[in-house]
């Protein structure tokens, strides 16, 4: 039904048609099992199961990122929070064990294990979301300046809100809040909605868009820059990194050659260098962005209004257009889709894919004050869309959340998107279209399973072909 294999066919340029690659054990064929076009390894593992095991480990990578952030924030003396963390850790360990040589050769049990990973993804996003709101307060919608900066400046990119709070506190402790301004980049944008971060008057605004514009933005930025989680661009990828490597700091697990590491939460070297650098110039735009629609905020502020608007026929459909941004024209599809969404529909988004269309003023649903653009936050806040859908289904007496007028288009790039997708599938969410490209780890058997069980697909590149009916509804 969907052109899942279109790109794969185009890309088939190698003499050998690689069906899988596994070289994890001594029994491996020379160069790795599958490296010469075989569809089965020496142990008997076939290419589909090998790919499903790859998918498991990709999901675990995304899961581990959220698990780490949750661990930084939760109270380990709280038995409930500790129990959830232990449950997640058990799934990580069990799933890694599952992928060992000669453990499991059963397709259905591979799917069941993937659903376990997805379920752990649901739990970790809820845990992290709770930890964020407990530590930083429940976000409120806020308008943020975009590409406007002054004074000495630190530009923070990544996802780690805890690190941002620690930095702001240290600047305050040193009596430098009037001298150093802090700005967000990419997935740090939602920081502005959190009350305990917003109270710092030197947390000023946002600069740039999604992670990959960092080489241009950091090159132009004459203050210091911090990347506190994944989605850093290394010098191996771009020569522009040398323009700012002496002003670039990384945090915890993040690292590239030549950048300085913030050790043991000591922000003083970063602050000291910022003071030595000239004031920021070249960022004086009048643009504004809106963020801060955590799902708790949405349910609290708009829950009853949304239900009324649905019942009165003023709100006809909810679109979830969310996920990772990456370079390339193909992702313009998601902007085109957002712009084509009718006025009596709303758009829920999260993650850095929102930068494809968050410059647009989508206004409110006619006859209501419900905003048509709702930014739930970072990628880990994607659980908010499910919470909103479940609350609406419950209030309307709709048994299956898939029966709600919801359309889902997800941008994917890396493994956090994979754990989010597995989480949605584990909740039984259907009719998801992802893009812009088909995952190369999926083969025909995996695709057939996803299509038959979840009506899952990949965007065609034509919004009317994919969503014509929904856009006209
Ligand atoms: S686990 Fe199986 S497929 Fe993987 S390298 Fe060993 S023999 Fe080959
Ligand atoms: S949403 Fe995805 S691509 Fe974007 S910064 Fe986060 S992890 Fe990276």
Automatic annotation (TrEMBL):
Q: Which GO terms describe its biological process?
A: response to hydrogen peroxide
Indicate which residues the UniProt annotation says bind hybrid [4Fe-2O-2S] cluster: 159, 187, 231, 324, 352, 379, 414, 416
Arranged from A to Z, the UniProt key words for this protein are: 4Fe-4S, Cytoplasm, Iron, Iron-sulfur, Metal-binding, Oxidoreductase
Instruction: Report the main location listed first in the record.
Output: cytoplasm
| Residues that bind [4Fe-4S] cluster | 22, 25, 33, 43
Subcellular location field: Cytoplasm
Q: Which reaction does it catalyse?
A: A + NH4(+) + H2O = hydroxylamine + AH2 + H(+)
Say yes or no: keyword Lyase present. no
A Pfam family of the record is Prismane
Q: Which prosthetic group or cofactor does it need?
A: [4Fe-4S] cluster; hybrid [4Fe-2O-2S] cluster
What biological function has been recorded for the protein in this entry?
Catalyzes the reduction of hydroxylamine to form NH(3) and H(2)O.
The protein's name: Hydroxylamine reductase
Source organism per entry reads Nautilia profundicola (strain ATCC BAA-1463 / DSM 18972 / AmH)
Gene encoding it? Answer: hcp
């Amino acid at each position: 039904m969907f052109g899942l294999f279109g790109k794969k066919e185009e890309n088939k340029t190698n003499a050998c048609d690689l069906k899988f690659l596994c070289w994890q054990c001594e029994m491996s064929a020379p160069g790795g099992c599958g490296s010469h076009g075989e569809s089965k390894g020496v142990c008997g593992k076939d290419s589909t199961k090998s790919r499903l095991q790859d998918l498991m480990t990709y999901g675990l990578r995304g899961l581990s990122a959220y698990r780490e952030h949750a661990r930084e924030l939760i109270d380990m003396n709280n038995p409930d929070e500790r129990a959830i963390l232990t449950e997640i850790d058990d799934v990580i360990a069990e799933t890694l064990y599952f992928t060992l040589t000669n453990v499991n050769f059963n397709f259905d049990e591979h799917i069941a294990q993937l659903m376990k990973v997805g379920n752990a993804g649901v739990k970790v996003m809820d845990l992290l979301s709770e930890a964020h709101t407990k530590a930083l307060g429940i976000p409120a919608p806020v308008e943020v300046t975009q590409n406007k900066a002054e004074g000495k400046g630190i530009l923070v990119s990544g996802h780690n809100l805890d690190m941002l709070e620690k930095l702001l506190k240290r600047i305050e402790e040193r009596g430098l809040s009037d001298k150093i301004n802090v700005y967000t980049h990419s997935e740090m944008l939602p920081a502005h909605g959190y009350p305990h971060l917003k109270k710092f008057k030197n947390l000023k605004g946002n600069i740039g868009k999604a992670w990959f514009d960092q080489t241009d933005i950091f090159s132009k930025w004459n203050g210091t820059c911090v990347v506190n989680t994944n989605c850093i661009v290394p010098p191996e990828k771009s020569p522009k990194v040398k323009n700012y490597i002496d002003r670039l700091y990384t945090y915890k697990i993040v690292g590239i050659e030549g950048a300085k590491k913030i050790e043991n939460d000591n922000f003083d070297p970063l602050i000291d260098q910022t003071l030595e650098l000239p004031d920021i110039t070249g960022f004086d735009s009048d643009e504004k962005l809106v963020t801060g629609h955590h799902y708790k905020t949405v349910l609290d502020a708009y829950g009853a209004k949304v239900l009324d608007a649905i019942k009165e026929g003023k709100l006809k459909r909810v679109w979830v257009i969310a996920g990772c941004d990456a370079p390339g024209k193909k992702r313009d599809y998601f902007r085109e889709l957002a712009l084509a969404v009718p006025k009596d529909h709303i758009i829920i988004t999260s993650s850095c894919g929102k930068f494809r269309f968050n410059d647009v003023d989508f206004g409110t649903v006619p006859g209501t004050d419900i905003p048509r653009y709702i930014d739930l936050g970072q990628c880990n806040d994607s659980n908010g869309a499910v919470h909103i859908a479940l609350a609406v289904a419950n209030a309307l007496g709709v048994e299956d959340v898939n029966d709600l007028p919801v359309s889902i288009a997800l941008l994917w790039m890396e493994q956090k998107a994979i754990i989010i997708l597995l989480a949605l599938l584990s909740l039984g969410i259907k009719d998801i279209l992802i893009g812009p490209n088909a995952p190369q780890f999926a083969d025909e058997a995996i695709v057939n399973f996803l299509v038959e069980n979840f009506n899952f697909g990949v965007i065609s590149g034509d919004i009317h072909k994919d969503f014509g009916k929904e856009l006209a509804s």
